[in-house]
Specification:
Elements: H1 9-18, H2 20-33, H3 42-54, H4 59-76, H5 84-97, E1 116-121, H6 128-141, E2 146-151, H7 158-169, E3 173-174, H8 182-195, E4 200-205, H9 212-229, E5 236-242, H10 247-259, E6 264-268, H11 278-285, E7 290-294, E8 302-304, H12 307-315
Parallel strand pairs: 1-4, 1-5, 2-3, 2-4, 5-6, 6-7
Antiparallel strand pairs: 7-8
The protein binds guanosine-5'-triphosphate (GTP) and magnesium ion (MG).
Residues 122, 124-130, 152, 155, 158, 207, 268-269, 271-272, 294-297, 301 line the site of guanosine-5'-triphosphate.
Length: 317
């Protein structure tokens, strides 16, 4: 993190608004957890554990948080229930910064990889195509030449949906007809992007194939074909997870990361859900950084994930 915080007022407002349901949920539970209590004792800690688990933070991460709070309470002797939110905010923020993943500072890609190739993966409906559209918009806004590749050839409307985004954002797209070989689309996209001096290439992939093994084999095939054009591509395999599914998103991340190499995560649909606590569990559990969060369907509704900002928004006053 640099000395200056580039956390603009608008960004904070979008984040606060997007997380409002999760926040309401956590706070109403917290209020019940400490009702009639002035001091953080064992009973409050038990209730707190339940609050975190039922807020989709996940069991392992919850236990880590409770352990930290216990230590603080033991050390500071008397902690009032009023101080609990601040304590939670601090301990969760510290826990997340201890997991060795760095937050990105802005929408940017390494200058020395040209084009920088991002392959977007995830099960159907999680928000892959939408996230690609939003990313293309942000990269373009940052002055990058962006190319999109429509390698989800499985579903009829998939190519069309990405075409609409490419027009909305104003970036070129490489496509073939439905049912064609996704690896061939990826090959064409990278060739074209390379020939035209693109900075970033984003490849969409199918979320649903005949079965899971097929899907993983397909992803491997796409990757291998990419290497024929750019030997170290893809530079980033971005796994998109639907945050509104709570613990399901966590399970998907487990399964996907076990089956294929993933090096960045995006958690979408945090607006309109009370399950946003799942981001805390995912960020704590995986050694893969949560890079982006989706807070709506619009072009502007994607943010670079920042642990501290996220926890502050959730537990801030
Ligand atoms: N509210 C909200 N909706 C979102 C967000 N991201 C995506 N969506 C919506 O979720 C739905 C599915 O998004 P897609 O981008 O089509 O998902 P996909 O992963 O490409 O789906 P497949 O191509 O079927 O695998 C769409 O209606 C999107 O508008 C988000 O951050 N917030
Ligand atoms: Mg799609």
């Amino acid at each position: 993190m640099g000395i200056f915080s580039f956390f603009s007022k608008e960004k904070k407002e979008t984040l606060d608004k997007g997380l409002s349901k999760t926040k309401e949920n956590v706070f109403s539970k917290l209020t019940r957890a400490i009702a009639g209590k002035s001091k953080v004792d064992d009973e409050v800690l038990d209730n707190l554990e339940e609050v975190l688990i039922t807020s989709d933070v996940g069991v392992d991460t919850t236990l880590k948080i409770i352990e930290r709070i216990e230590k603080r309470v033991a050390r500071d002797k008397y902690v009032t229930t009023q101080e609990l939110t601040t304590l939670l905010r601090d301990e969760i923020a510290t826990l997340l910064t201890e997991n060795n993943t760095e937050d990105a500072e802005s929408f940017t890609v390494p200058e020395d990889k040209k084009p920088y190739v991002i392959m977007v993966v995830g099960v159907n409906g999680v928000g892959k195509t939408t996230t690609i559209g939003k990313l293309a918009y942000q990269f373009k806004k940052a002055g990058k030449n962006v190319y999109l590749g429509a390698a989800d050839t499985f579903r009829a409307a998939a190519v069309e949906q990405l075409v609409i985004w490419s027009e909305r954002v104003g970036v070129p797209i490489v496509k073939q007809k439905m049912g064609s070989d996704p690896a061939s689309v990826a090959f064409d996209t990278l060739s074209s992007a390379k020939a035209n001096g693109a900075d970033v290439v984003i490849i969409d992939t199918a979320g649903r194939l005949h079965n899971k093994i097929n899907l993983m084999n397909e992803l491997t095939k796409i990757k291998n074909v990419m290497k024929k054009v750019i030997p170290d591509a893809p530079h980033e395999v971005l796994l998109v997870l639907d945050g509104s599914t709570g613990q399901n998103a966590f399970e998907q991340a487990k399964q996907f990361t076990a089956a294929t190499e993933v090096n960045a995560l995006a958690v979408t649909k945090l607006d309109g859900t009370a399950k946003g606590g799942v981001v805390i569990g995912i960020s704590d559990h995986f050694r893969i950084p949560v890079k982006y969060i989706g807070l709506g369907e619009g072009m502007e509704d994607l943010q670079v994930f920042n642990k501290k900002e996220f926890v502050n928004s959730l537990f801030g006053e």
